[in-house]
Amino acid sequence: MSERESVARTLGVATGVAVFCSLFVSSAVLWLRPIQLAYASIERNRAIVEAAGLVEPGVELDEREIVDRFLDLEARIVDLDAGAFSDPVSPTTYDFRAAIDDPDQTRSIPDELDIANLGRRPVYLPVYLLRDGAGIELIVLPIYGPGMWAMIHGFISVRADFTTIEAVTFYEHGETPGIGDRFLDPAWLAQWQGRRAYDDTRRVVFRIGADEATPAANGAIDAITGATVTTSAIEDLVRYWLGDDGFGPFLATQRGAAQ
Amino acid sequence: MLSRLISSSRNTLLTPLLDGNPITLQVLGLCSALAVTSSLRPALVMSAAVISVLVFANVTVSLLRHIMPQSIRLIIEVTLIASAVIVVDEVLKAFVPDIAVILSVFVGLIITNCIVLARVESFAMHNGVWASLLDGLGNGLGYAWILLLIGAVRELLGTGSLLGYEVLQLTENGGRFEPNELMLLTPSAFFLLALLVWMIRSLRPAQREQTEQTQSNNRSSGVSL
């Protein structure tokens, strides 16, 4: 064996420890990932059910109740480029979270429309309909976009007028604990209820934080002091997904059909 | 010989519980002790996490102590600690995801918890694997009982419950207990910890720190005698 303080020994021990630690960490992650993903899909369904207003505020549902209520909703796939429902894709097998990261299932977003800095988006996304007899009472749409550190994922529900926001929920984010993550405060999220997303010409008027163009009296949601990056990221991603490159054309078509 | 071995093992395990407690005597690891003790369940999970990391770090560093070059000693220790913390964090996210959300950054911050590096540097580098394992376990338990005690008091007085089960019936449910919401805020952990340290040091005067004031008092009283 070489000297304890020799270069060879130093390199050898460093390499050995590095290899051991990487194997240890990566095998643990490989083993645990499926369990974490199962939980993540329950959390996603919980967010959908909450956005659809099927949970009374403050009530904790167990997994079974979430699945039961999730099944009360009708899942459909929307072709964003066509702005219409797309039936060839099955909503039960289509994994939109996998599609987001798949270059073959996404297309690039023109720079001038990419206000949320997404780069690419899928062609197909699922929506969840709360039926009221034959008509639609609420429609739940997936939304996501880059936050301060990681993607923020959530759902927004829109009323039958396809104009008014009913609720918003978020189920995945990497915002700074105690600072950016204050956007999850129920009192802040409650402000979204009843806000108009579009004006009469179907322009997106949704805003967070008042400015000269849209004073708070016109219905902007309060920004959160200290969480500026997070709240403006949420504003951008909501404006993108409600806009012309997101669900805007689809919602306009639905509104026309309903009237 | 055997009895001496057993008694030294017992000392390694038991001393950190009270006489060498990492929180109340060494005043280390306070950040997490204050942050995760608003109720008992996160305190319980955090304790288990710290115990696992301490034992893993102490055992691995003790195994490597003869071959570890001094020049890269610290970075190897921190690498081992960090790996253990990542694995613990992933385990929590898989099996107790709701608690993992409450603990948020504090699991990751175990990497920088002074207790872990202190035990590795001051004990595991100089002692055998078995003694290091017991030392890690003992210090982990010493950290744990303080966390659990503060967590239990805060949850009981702040919500009237323990582990979510109602123990003291609240006035709003027809009982006679009015919860003190201050207990759910971080400052209450400071008060409770201070009371605990005061109690322990009153019972164990040897733990009292010698300040200049007390030293000069001792000196002057010595002269007068």
Would you give an account of this structure?
The complex is a heterodimer of chains A (259) and B (225). With 259 residues, chain A is of the alpha+beta class. Chain A contains 6 helices and 8 strands, in the order ααββαββββββααα. Chain A has a 6-stranded antiparallel sheet with strand order 2-1-5-6-7-8, with helices on both faces. In chain A, helix 1 (7-51) packs across helix 2. Chain A is globular. The termini of chain A are far apart. Chain B has one domain. A two-stranded antiparallel ribbon of chain B has the order 1-2. Chain A binds chain B through residues 4-6, 9-10, 13-14, 17-18, 21, 24-25, 28-29, 32, 35-36, 39, 43, 177-178, and chain B through 64, 67-72, 75-76, 79-80, 82-83, 86-87, 90-91, 93-95, 97, 104-105.
Strand content of chain B: under 5%
Number of helices of chain A: 6
Distance between the termini of chain A: 85 Å
Mean model confidence by pLDDT of chain B:
86
> Roughly what percent helix of chain B?
55-70%
Shape of chain A: globular
For the residues shown, what is the average pLDDT of chain A? 89
Strand order of the largest sheet of chain B: 1-2
Helix/strand-derived class of chain B?
A: mainly alpha
What Rg of chain A, in angstroms, do the CA atoms define? 22 Å
Domain tally of chain A: 2
Report the sheet with the most strands of chain B, covering strand number, pairing sense and barrel closure.
2 strands, antiparallel
Oligomer: heterodimer
Q: What is the largest interface, and how many residues per chain?
A: A-B, 21 and 23 residues
Q: How many individual helices of chain B?
A: 10
For the largest beta-sheet of chain A, the strand count, sense and barrel status come to:
6 strands, antiparallel
Shape descriptor of chain B reads globular
